Amino acid sequence: MLKKLYKSRDDRMVSGVIGGIAEYFGIDSTLLRLIYAVVLFIGIGSPVLLYIILAIVMPEPKIDRRRPERTNNKGYYKTNASRKRSPKEAEKVEDDDWSDF
Of 2, 47, 48, 59, which is least surrounded by CB within 10 A? Predict the structure, then answer.
Protein backbone atom coordinates (compact mmCIF):
# COMPACT_ATOMS: atom_id res chain seq x y z
CA MET A 1 0.00 0.00 0.00
CA LEU A 2 1.33 3.40 -0.99
CA LYS A 3 1.70 5.82 1.94
CA LYS A 4 0.99 9.50 1.39
CA LEU A 5 2.30 12.43 3.37
CA TYR A 6 -0.48 14.47 5.00
CA LYS A 7 -0.65 16.95 7.83
CA SER A 8 -1.63 15.28 11.07
CA ARG A 9 -5.23 15.81 12.15
CA ASP A 10 -4.68 14.61 15.72
CA ASP A 11 -1.07 15.50 16.55
CA ARG A 12 -0.96 19.26 15.96
CA MET A 13 0.96 22.04 17.62
CA VAL A 14 0.81 24.69 14.90
CA SER A 15 -0.38 23.26 11.60
CA GLY A 16 0.28 19.51 11.89
CA VAL A 17 3.35 19.40 9.64
CA ILE A 18 5.75 17.75 12.10
CA GLY A 19 3.03 15.42 13.37
CA GLY A 20 2.29 14.37 9.79
CA ILE A 21 5.96 13.73 9.04
CA ALA A 22 6.26 11.68 12.24
CA GLU A 23 3.20 9.60 11.30
CA TYR A 24 4.60 9.04 7.80
CA PHE A 25 7.96 7.78 9.03
CA GLY A 26 6.52 6.01 12.09
CA ILE A 27 8.54 7.86 14.72
CA ASP A 28 7.56 9.78 17.83
CA SER A 29 6.49 13.34 17.06
CA THR A 30 8.05 14.65 20.28
CA LEU A 31 11.46 13.39 19.16
CA LEU A 32 10.99 15.03 15.76
CA ARG A 33 9.96 18.31 17.42
CA LEU A 34 13.08 18.22 19.60
CA ILE A 35 15.26 17.65 16.54
CA TYR A 36 13.51 20.56 14.81
CA ALA A 37 14.13 22.82 17.84
CA VAL A 38 17.82 21.90 17.95
CA VAL A 39 18.20 22.58 14.21
CA LEU A 40 16.31 25.86 14.68
CA PHE A 41 18.61 27.09 17.46
CA ILE A 42 21.82 25.90 15.81
CA GLY A 43 20.81 27.70 12.65
CA ILE A 44 21.41 24.95 10.12
CA GLY A 45 19.62 25.90 6.92
CA SER A 46 16.33 27.72 7.23
CA PRO A 47 13.95 25.53 9.26
CA VAL A 48 11.32 28.25 9.67
CA LEU A 49 11.11 28.82 5.92
CA LEU A 50 10.98 25.06 5.32
CA TYR A 51 8.15 24.69 7.87
CA ILE A 52 6.14 27.49 6.24
CA ILE A 53 6.59 25.95 2.79
CA LEU A 54 5.53 22.53 4.06
CA ALA A 55 2.52 24.02 5.85
CA ILE A 56 1.38 25.50 2.54
CA VAL A 57 2.25 22.53 0.30
CA MET A 58 1.29 19.52 2.45
CA PRO A 59 -2.35 18.54 1.95
CA GLU A 60 -4.88 18.18 4.73
CA PRO A 61 -6.05 14.61 5.37
CA LYS A 62 -9.18 13.61 3.53
CA ILE A 63 -12.37 13.51 5.60
CA ASP A 64 -13.88 10.06 5.77
CA ARG A 65 -17.54 10.62 4.89
CA ARG A 66 -18.47 7.16 6.14
CA ARG A 67 -17.63 8.18 9.72
CA PRO A 68 -19.42 11.49 10.31
CA GLU A 69 -19.11 11.14 14.10
CA ARG A 70 -15.46 12.14 13.77
CA THR A 71 -16.40 15.67 12.72
CA ASN A 72 -18.61 18.23 14.36
CA ASN A 73 -21.30 20.12 12.44
CA LYS A 74 -18.74 22.73 11.24
CA GLY A 75 -16.62 20.13 9.45
CA TYR A 76 -13.73 20.22 11.93
CA TYR A 77 -12.41 17.04 13.49
CA LYS A 78 -13.38 16.49 17.08
CA THR A 79 -10.56 16.26 19.55
CA ASN A 80 -10.49 13.67 22.28
CA ALA A 81 -11.29 16.36 24.84
CA SER A 82 -14.49 17.39 23.04
CA ARG A 83 -15.98 13.90 22.98
CA LYS A 84 -18.39 13.21 25.77
CA ARG A 85 -17.32 10.54 28.20
CA SER A 86 -19.15 9.10 31.12
CA PRO A 87 -17.50 9.89 34.45
CA LYS A 88 -15.81 7.05 36.26
CA GLU A 89 -16.98 6.22 39.73
CA ALA A 90 -14.41 6.01 42.47
CA GLU A 91 -13.91 2.72 44.24
CA LYS A 92 -14.51 2.65 47.96
CA VAL A 93 -11.33 2.19 49.95
CA GLU A 94 -11.27 0.61 53.37
CA ASP A 95 -9.83 2.93 56.02
CA ASP A 96 -7.05 0.97 57.63
CA ASP A 97 -5.17 2.52 60.48
CA TRP A 98 -1.72 1.88 59.08
CA SER A 99 -0.11 5.11 60.25
CA ASP A 100 2.45 5.09 63.07
CA PHE A 101 1.61 8.65 64.11
Answer: 2
Q: What are phi and psi of 71, to 5 degrees?
A: -120, 150
The answer to whether the CB of 70 falls within 8 A of the CB of 78 is yes
When pLDDT is cut at 50, 70 and 90, the band that residue 31 belongs to is very high
| Cβ neighbours, 10 Å, residue 23 | 20
Whether 13 contacts 33, CB under 8 Å: yes
User: pTM for this structure?
Assistant: 0.56
Give tens-digit pLDDT for 62-71. 765 555 555 5
- 3 DSSP assignment: -
Domain segments of the chain: what residues? 17-77
